[in-house]
Amino acid sequence: MSERIVITGAGIVSAIGNNKQQCLESLKMGASGIGEVRFLDTEHHEFPVGEVKMSNLEMCNLLGISNKQVHSRTTLMGIIAVKEALTQARADSLYCPLTLISGTTVGGMDVTERYLSKSQDMTQEECVSCITTHTCGASTNAIAAYFGNTFNSTLTPSTACSSALNAITLGCDLIKAGLAQVVVAGGSECLSLFHLNGFKSLMILDTEPCKPFDNNRKGLNLGEGAAFVVLESEQHAAERGANVMATIAGYGNACDAFHQTASSPDGEGAFLAMSKALGDAQLAANDIDYINAHGTGTPNNDQSESAAIHRLFGDDMPPVSSTKSFTGHTTSASGAIETVISLLVLQEQFLPANLNWESSIEDDGIVPVRKATSASLHNVMCNSFGFGGNDSSLILSKYSE
Amino acid sequence: MNWVRIRKDSIKINGTTLPTNHCGMEMLKEVYKQLIGGYPKFFKMDALCRLGFIASELLLQQESPRITDTERRAVILFNRSSSLCDDRSYQTTIQDTEKFFPSPAVFVYTLPNIVTGEISIRNKYYGETLFCVLDKFNANEIFQVVKESFLDSMTNDVITGWVDCESDDDFEASMILVGPNDPDFNPDFINEIYKHN
Fold first, then answer.
1. Is residue A244 part of a domain?
2. Is A171 within the bounds of a domain?
3. Which of chain A's residues have a Cβ under 8 Å away from the Cβ of B163?
4. Per-residue pLDDT tens for A86-100?
5. How many domains is chain B partitioned into structurally?
6. Could B110 and A258 be called an inter-chain contact, meaning their C-beta atoms sit closer than 8 Å?
7. What phi and psi, each to the nearest 5 degrees, are found at residue B110?
8. What is the ipTM for the molecules in this complex?
9. A373: Cβ–Cβ under 8 A, 6 or more apart, which residues?
10. pTM (2 d.p.)
11. Is B130 helix (H, G, I), strand (E, B) or coil?
C-alpha cells in the first residue's frame, strides 16, 4: 500500500467568509452568502450570486500589493487562500520547493472583459498587460509569483466544475509518484460575464436562492472563491513536525460518457467516481459518515446525483447536504471549496445544512441535512462533477497515527 | 505504440502521410467523410472537438479489435490555447447589446475538456479524463502526468497528446495510445512525434 497523503494546511475565501474561521461560523449559523450581485458589472441583477464580499481594491490592500498593476480577481482570491494554507502548514519557508496546482476555467477572463470594451482607447502596453493575464495558466503563475521562490512548478488542470478536486487528486498522485514532496492544490474562480451569460443561456440559473435536492428546484446560483490545501506524505509531515488536519483516504475519477454538459439520468459517472473513491480508500459504503454533495440545484444534476447515491448506498444512506446553498456554485473552484468545508466539518464534528430544502425529489429523492447538527464523523465524501462528463469524488478521514 | 500527428495541412499516422486534398477545417471534414462517417454530431462540434475527434478516430482505427465500453481507458489531453477558438465565437454572441444572444450550442464548447468528453462519449470510455492547459508544449510535463495516471490500477491505457486549436484553419494535434509498460514511451518519443512529424 502506498504511503498516506495528509493535509497540513487549508485556506478558503468564499461568499461566506474570507478565511476558514469566518466560513465555519457562517456554516454553523446557517448564514448563506448568496445575494444580489455587487461587484460583477452585469445588468442581470435578477440572478442571486455568491460573491466574495471584497472588492479587488480591498483584496489588494489586504495583500499589500499595488492595485496599479492589473490583477485578475481569480489571482487575488487565489493568493488569499494559498496564503492562509501555507501559513497554517508553516510551509512557506520549507527547504524544498513546492508545487502549486490550481484548477480554473475562467482564469483571468474578468480582466479581459473589463478592458475589452475600451481596447481601442488603450495603449499597447495596457493591451498586452490585459492579454497576458487572460489564460488559466497565467492566473496560477501569478498566484505563485506572489510567494517569491516558494513554488518551483505550477500545474493548471481544467475539467470544468471538477477542476479543483482534480487538482487535489493530481497533487496526491504527484506525491505518490515521487515527483513532488509538498503540493499546494485547489482552485480559484471569479465570476465573469462570459459564464454568467452562458449559464443563463443554458437556462440553469435560478432567480431565487438555489434549493439543492428540493423537488421544486429551478437551477443554480453562481458563486466565486478560492480554496487550497497543503498536501504531503504522512512521513514528510511527521519529519518536519507539521500538524495533520486530516488524511486523504481515497479518490476516484470517472467519465459519464453521456453528454457534453448534462449528466446521465442514472448518474453512471457519479456512481463510478464514488465507487472508485471507496475502493481506493478501502472503505465500505457504510463507513462514510457524511457526503458533501455536488448538489448544484439544477433539475438534471440533483436527480442524477440522487440516483447515483441511492445506487451506491442503498437504504443505508449517510447524511447528505449541498453547501452550494451557502456559497453558490463556485464552478471550477467548487471541488476545493467543498473539500475545505468537508475538512472543517470533520474537524469540528458537525453536519452542515442544505439550505432552502422543503420537499423530496419524487421517486428516488434524498432528504438532506436541514440544520447544522453535531455528529461523530470519521470519513466524509466530497463530490465534484463537471461538464464534459468529468466526475470526481474524494474521501477525507479523521487523522489517527 | 500507435500515434497520429495532425498539422493544419497534413496528417501522419505512425509516420505515414495520409493523402488529403484540403487544408484546415476542410481537411478535417474531408477525412471525416472519406474515412469515418456515421457520426453526424461531428458537424455540431467546435473546431477543437473536431480536431480531437478526428485524431482519436484515426488513432483508434489502428487498434484491432477496437476497444469500447470500458472504465479502464483514460483520456488525458493538453494544449496551450484552451478553448479560446470557441470562446471567441461565443464572445461575439454577447459582445453587442443590440444583437445580444448567448447561444447555448456555442457556450457548451467553451471548455477545453469538452473534447475529452466527446471522445469518451463516442467510445463509451468511463475512465479518467483530464485536460491540462500548459504555457507551451512540454513533453516532460505530459510524460509525468500520464505516468502518474497509471498509479490508478483501474487504468489500463491512456489516450494522450497535444490538441491545440487557434482557429478553424490553424491547429495541430499529436495523439498517442499508450500502455503502462510501453518501453518506448518517454519524453523523447513525445517530442519526436511533435517536432519531427
1. no
2. yes
3. none
4. 999 998 778 888 999
5. 1
6. no
7. -85, 35
8. 0.89
9. A319, A350, A351
10. 0.95
11. strand
